[in-house]
TrEMBL record:
Record-level GO cellular component terms: plasma membrane
Pfam families linked to this entry: PK_Tyr_Ser-Thr (PF07714)
EC identifiers of the protein: 2.7.11.1
Annotated membrane topology: Single-pass membrane protein
Source organism of the structure: Pisum sativum
Molecular function terms from GO: ATP binding; protein serine/threonine kinase activity
Top-level taxon in the UniProt lineage: Eukaryota
Membrane-spanning ranges: 63-87
Subcellular locations according to the entry: Cell membrane
Keyword Nucleotide-binding appears in the UniProt entry: yes
Protein name: non-specific serine/threonine protein kinase
PROSITE patterns per UniProt: PROTEIN_KINASE_ATP, PROTEIN_KINASE_DOM
Signal peptide: 1-26
Amino acid sequence: MQLLLRIRLLLLIMIQMLVYLNKSTGKLSCGVKEKIDSNNEIPTLTLSIKESQEKKQGGGRRVAAVVGGAGAALVIIVIVVIIYICLRRYRRFKRQTSDSASSVPSQAIEMGRINSLQYVNAFSPHYMQNTRLLTISELEQATGNFSQSNIIGEGKFGFVYKGLLEDGSFVAIKRRMFALTRDFIPEVKQIAQIHHIHIVKLIGYYEDSYQQLLVYEYLPNGNVGNHLYDNEGLPIGKLDLQRRVSIALGASKGLDHLHGLVPPMLHTNFSTINVLLDENFTAKVSDYGFCKLQTKVDQAGSSSNVDYFHDPELRLSENYSEQNDVYSFGVFLLELISGFEVHNRNMSQPDENIIFQAKYSSVMDKFIDITLREEERVAARRMMKLALLCVDVILRRPSMAHIVQELERIQRDIAPLYSEINEEIGVVTLGSELFK
């Protein structure tokens, strides 16, 4: 309404300027008389006696009138340009309004490769915030038509593809085909509300009659396991203790945030491969909110392979609680401190794993990564004790809030150690300046 009122005002101003211009030009023509010579009938212009007396003054007035008219014309041109810009903005506003109105739940959209129309669900911006309903054509273009060369992993939801959206952002696209869940959209709605620095952000989603896709932010350093052990599950020593504590603290804060929601969100699928690292090695928890997205097919497929992050005290999925997530976090801590995969090829017996060995061993140091320096091992023992407490019987396990506090204390205690190292490196750097 304000925009329309402004346009009306500008139009009125333009009309007043036009009236003024007409009056000015009319005065120019009032003193001019046309006389036709009787001999040759050639039109001539004559001036009255009074007009001839004011000839000099009239010429000045005409010049002033012409200048005034030119100025008025310039003002009108400027006003017309302003009106044109306002109209363009108004039309753009109307177009955006109509576009947003087109995403109502009952609208039919085209589903890419499927030559049919299907109704899709959408939610208000209050719930979905920046989460986008993407088209299948966008996702196919982003992944090279889901090329195998773009597969970067596989989880319980399906294959994970690396993709490049039209806006230039890299994304990780999880794709489930055929074995779909009817609770997909409600779960997406719930996940879309979660925003935390240590939680992987959901960017978009897509669903049709035979596939469901989740689009997350892409984290270039992959999962923590890539930086702990090799293909045989043995330590590779890429991370110092300071970085391991930072990763553990970030992951614990992510889980603690999920548990602090109302109602609490249980991860139910926490493991080392679900802790991802960005370009600064900031840890972020992924695959959260999958409790209802996991179908019976997922559960049946997992029975053939032992999930060592799964709490053995958990009998029924309906009884899952925060303490079961704590158990999974304890297994993650054991891997993080030892550098071993929980079940690696170095195990002498098929049913052996680090959890069993660490719980019943009297020598804790043999489960601390040998690549850590001697001065780091004191804090590593504290983290190992915390890990063993997490995998203890359910009544003795700490809460995620308590785990965050303990890891923060460990981080503070080891900070002077690394500040001394940085100072030594700084002295060497300054000394090297002398030889330039």
